[in-house]
Amino acid sequence: MKITGAITAIVTPMRENGDIDYSSLESLIEMQIDNGISSIVAVGTTGESATIEVGEHLEIIEFFVKKIDGRIPLIAGTGANATKEAIYLTDSAKDLGVDAVLLVTPYYNKPNQEGLYQHYMSIADSVEIPQILYNVPSRTAVHIESKTVSKLAQHQNIIGLKDATGDMEIFEQLNKLCAFEIQNNTFCLYSGDDETSCEFIKRGGHGSISVTSNLLPALVSSMCKTAKDKDSEAEAERINEILSEINRVLFIQSNPIPVKYALFKMGLIEKGIRLPLTPLGEKHFDVLNSELEKLDLI
Predict the structure, then answer these.
(1) Counted domains in the chain
(2) Is 162 among the residues known to form the active site?
């Protein structure tokens, strides 16, 4: 299975008391599919996986499986800072029927490269499901080096990497070191940084796991499609320019605080977000509202 294009790292809608709002979640899923998104990531960082309990985590994944019903691939976030927990979540997600999983680097305990290698190999050896590595050092305090990725890419169950560094030098390293697997269609590179995703795909990346596509799935999808085609690069750049400011302001506070505010302003979800995250600060309202108005979202 090869997943490419625009992939939405979707929010988990919540009511103001923190309960999961499944009605709004169903509407968000339908909006994404109706607007041509290639795939959805459920319960990733944007889906507040860090504050969702294990039982809830699996309930949410099961809901996604039932509602998507095979129409597009579903990727479930099943990473954890404990290897046994990541294996449990990954195995459970497989049983529930997801198409692939996204595995964030273990956070807080700061493993070295050998620890990262053994962590991912243990999951890949334990559960036969397509697995995407996720490198986001700004949030986890650990960076998975390109050489480590290239060794892991040889495992048949490890099918890709989401790189959220926004560093094109890292992309070029990965593209070179994983060239054999990429050329043989067994490994893909995904941008995890909306601001640089157009350049990432133009250079040979396979897609973008996007926050912005929560708001603008059709536009992000068009950008990803045109960026892959040398003859359409000018159109990709035009769309990227339209998206550039919203890509920036959606990270004026920790994700998913701004994107949840935006979806609330669009009338698509309630205000709910779980501590220790809090709703968007009032000082940021004007800049985000202004951009939403420019894009005709409110």
Answers:
(1) 1
(2) yes
